[in-house]
Specification:
- The protein has one domain.
- The model has no long low-confidence stretch (mean pLDDT 89).
- It has nine helices and no strands.
- Helix 5 packs antiparallel against helix 6.
Length: 179
């Protein structure tokens, strides 16, 4: 039986821009910057202000697509080792979220965990979240941070390859473009 949250029913969104944002955040982490570079933040703010509602929705959908793709990859890795992705990945990421109270206020952690579980069980995170109403402004930063945490977790799993998660998506996009 098909679920209304089946990824085949979900818009993909602007995955390229979402990947660019996530890759930028990862590079800042790996460069050892503890805060956001004021110049980079100004550019991000300027970019965000230039987005109309349709572009903002597409970017949001793109971030959800990244979360789905990362969790799908992690699910495949876990299955090769007879592990369950929800059991082995979600608790680690939720524990990290709890250590970041400025980014993840306690009330958004269940939503972000739900997104990870939805994606880990093969559901569209965006369609799963849509069941509960529109996205809130308070969820935007945690949503971005969740995708960054996933990408960084993948990079550590593969042996501290700081670009693996970005290449994983870029390669998938390249194959899609060829089709």
């Amino acid at each position: 039986m098909s679920s209304p949250c089946d990824p085949a029913n979900a818009p993909v969104g602007d995955v390229s821009t979402a990947l660019m944002v996530i890759d930028s955040r990862l590079k800042a982490i790996y460069d050892g910057r503890t805060g956001t570079d004021p110049e980079q933040q100004r550019m991000v703010d300027q970019f965000a202000a230039s987005l109309g509602p349709a572009e903002a929705d597409a970017l949001l959908e793109g971030v959800c697509t990244l979360i789905y793709m990362y969790m799908d990859w992690l699910r495949a890795v876990c299955e090769r080792h007879d592990k369950e992705v929800v059991e082995h990945i979600v608790p680690t990421l939720v524990a990290t979220m709890r250590m970041m109270p400025n980014t993840f206020r306690p009330e958004v952690i269940p939503t972000m965990a739900g997104l990870l579980i939805a994606a880990g069980t093969g559901l569209s995170p965006n369609l799963w979240r849509a069941q509960y109403g529109d996205w809130t402004g308070a969820e935007m930063n945690p949503l971005e941070a969740t995708s960054v945490l996933l990408a960084e977790h993948i990079n550590r799993i593969v042996g501290d390859d700081q670009d693996f998660a970005t290449r994983l998506i870029a390669d998938a996009l390249a194959v899609t473009d060829l089709d």
